[in-house]
Amino acid sequence: MDPQGSEREPGAPTRGDRGSLRILAVAVQKGGTGKTTLAASLAVAAAEAGERVAALDLDPQGSLAGWGALRSGDAVAVDRIQPWEIGQLAEILGVLAEEGRTLAVLDTAGSSAGLAPALKDADFVLMPVRPSRLDIVAARPTLQILMDVGLRGRFALVLNQCPAPPSPRTSAYASQLRALGVLADPGIIHRVDHQDALATGLGVTEYAPASPAADEIRALWTWIDAKMRATEAR
Ligand SMILES: Nc1ncnc2c1ncn2[C@@H]1O[C@H](COP(=O)(O)OP(=O)(O)O)[C@@H](O)[C@H]1O
Ligand SMILES: [Mg+2]
Question: Where does the pLDDT of residue 19 fall: very low under 50, low under 70, confident under 90, or very high at 90 and above?
Fold first, then answer.
């Protein structure tokens, strides 16, 4: 694996006719790492930063769609993609582009089912992992799919649910992943604001705008946005 590589593989899918719509998939083949939590709050933070955001729930569990049902207002359009609709994802994204959306955030299931089609259409893939060996090892099959669909250089792991610093273990994992060039910045600390925000249909930047949790999410969106623009430009 050459995680620093930047080009899509020869013959890999191209963006197609999606105008200015960018696709951020949040994916890793393990449950409970924080995909839905980060997808929801990043979608809101991106909207606050001026993106026209659609958040699509590809997980049959429907947690993101349930969050969306609690929301009022239209800052983020939340929709559910059923398993039998995943084959039409490219068309669905095309419609979002026509509607003038600029960012689609795809929340995915913690299993391999339906993952490859979602990742194939992504411009960037964020993989939340907790700072534990089991989570990081469990990310390997997803990394393999990313390589297979030609997304080399267009993904990053984010350490989520980190213990409050100082945490030597978290720092050690961060150093390893940073050395491989696959670490998103900053890591996200375990904070109840994330849980309370999701429970009330809010992003954490809406729920507690002045909190450290909100600051981390805004910083993570800024990092992802810059990374997506940098890889687009290549
Ligand atoms: N940064 C965080 N701080 C506190 N709790 C978190 C954080 N990220 C996720 N959680 C909690 O961890 C659990 C799993 O998160 P979830 O987003 O549902 O993961 P996934 O979608 O990967 O299965 C939930 O109870 C969620 O509230
Ligand atoms: Mg989930």
Answer: confident
For residues 159 and 188, the answer to whether their CB atoms sit within 8 Å is: yes
Asked if 67 and 78 count as a contact pair (C-beta separation under 8 A), the reply is yes
Predicted pLDDT at 16: 60
Query: Which range of residues forms the domain containing residue 56?
Result: 22-229
Residue in the structure block whose two tokens are 């949040």: 26
Whether residue 160 has its Cβ less than 6 Å from ligand 1? yes
Assign residue 136 the CATH number of its domain. 3.40.50.300
What is the phi/psi pair of residue 104, to 5°?
Answer: -115, 125
Residue nearest to atom 3 of ligand 1 (CA): 190
Q: Which residue's CA lies nearest to atom 27 of ligand 1?
A: 195
51 assigned to some structural domain: yes
Q: Is pTM, for the whole model, over 0.85?
A: yes
Q: What average pLDDT does range 35-62 have in this prediction?
A: 98
